[in-house]
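The record is passed on directly below:
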Amino acid sequence: MSEGFGKTLELEKVEGGESDHGQESVEYQGWKSMPFVIGNETFEKLGTIGTMANQLVYLTTVFHMDSVTAATMMNIVFGTTNMTPVLGAFISDTFLGRYTTIAFASVASLLGMVLLTLTAAVPKLHPSPCKENHQECHGPTSSQLSVLIFAFFLLTIGAGGIRPCNLPFGADQFNPKTESGRRGIASFFNWYYCTFTVAMMISATLIIYVQSNISWTLGLAIPATLMFFSCITFFVGTRFYVRVQPEGSPFTSMAQVIVAAFKKRQVNLPELPEKELFDPPHHSNLVTKLPHTDQFKFFDKAAVITSKDEIKSSGEATDPWRLCTVQQVEVVKCFFRLIPVWSSCIMYYIPLTMHGTYVVYQALQTDRRLGKSSFKIPAGSFVVFNMLTLTIWIPIYDRLIVPQLRKITGHEGGITILQRIGVGIVISILATTVSASIEKHRRDIALHKPTPMSSLWLVPQLMLFGLSEAFSIIGQNEFYYQQFPENMRSVASAVLLLGFAISSYASSALVTIVHKVTGRNGSRNWLAKDLNEGRLDLFYMMIAGVATLNFVYFIICAKWYRSRGKANGAEPKVFLEGKE
């Protein structure tokens, strides 16, 4: 890893002695705390993904649910687990802090996994096995279903606290004000995603194999055990952690700015806002002082001092819902500045979501044998090629390519974060186009030749999508962490997950529309159940076209974007330029 795994980064006083703001100081341990942070996250991912990846099969085979009921239940569970991180981020950034939130959520996840394991191990907690020929299959009783739902509830609580906090908590261990600390943060994001893909690979192969072919009890006990190790690893490293304490609700402050600006919508802005707006001394020990910017000028009205506004002797506004500080206004501007870039990244997820679904169907209609052997690669395991590419590429990029790019561009990350996201979007367009070409080739062989196409033809497109994720999704994680205010960094991680959730809904809507429109009046349905009768290649090309338009939109947003902390007159160097 960059800077050496055991190397302690430069120290900065933020808590513990006395700092400039009157706070005590602590030491940033940097990579010294990473064995505990990354170990905890790796075990947690192995446990969580290993538990949830095969739940649809578990519900239909052990609980004897019909496919529609099982799919509906899991859609609700997955949808909820993508939404609860927003609430978890709010609680973390406002009340508990990331350490306490992760601790509580980890225990909740462990209890959920243990309870789910018991539903398989204890005969009374699941329906009796079906009799011969499945003639008599009884579904779960109300009490059995209650235990199952409560286990899912605990897992959802755990996901709501862990998902938005574990990434920023790891980044909190590095000093963002030193060069080595900033490099450490960038390297941590790379390795974080690397461990995530390794966990997915193991879950998609070994753990699912144990669950499906050996024993559900053992297959669910393994993830629960791994989650237990995750908790132990996390708590053992407690003395090494930097624990950033919350400073109250950032959402209340943002609401005050919006309300105050609306109340003063008829007020004219001053000619010299930097000098005339309400800008008292900044006392926060957590959030960096932000300079005034000239974007979203409407919100500046919240900081205009009028005859109706009163200021206390302490320098604070008497009515914070009528008069806000420039700092409060700029935090709101930071949030609204991120929305265009975030929206363009939502569209980026759609090709990934579509391909992740339809590559399985493509694999099912290919020759999945390895050479002349009788072994067939499971259709659902082809995603491993995507993960394998990402896992191999990240260390190469982090250790070899970034240092060389750094010499050329002078940028700490080799290229800017938005440039990295843009590269990922371009690769996803290329991957989708390649997918269309390979699908056309597969379909032509299926219709005109006696033997189907080899499934290994699918590997290039999977590798390209893995490479795309290595650039774009890791870049987004780092971008949101850096550009959100310090007291909203758990929200930053939740925003990424929210983007995934929205893209999933958008993908479902797009599939429904294409399915209905192309199959109208007896015409060929692009998304027919039998891909040989459909035109999945044209669907892929349509997705590539949408992604290309989205890339143009992303370029516009990226060039317009001004990095947090850039004052008026400063060029927004986060996209086009190298040195900052």
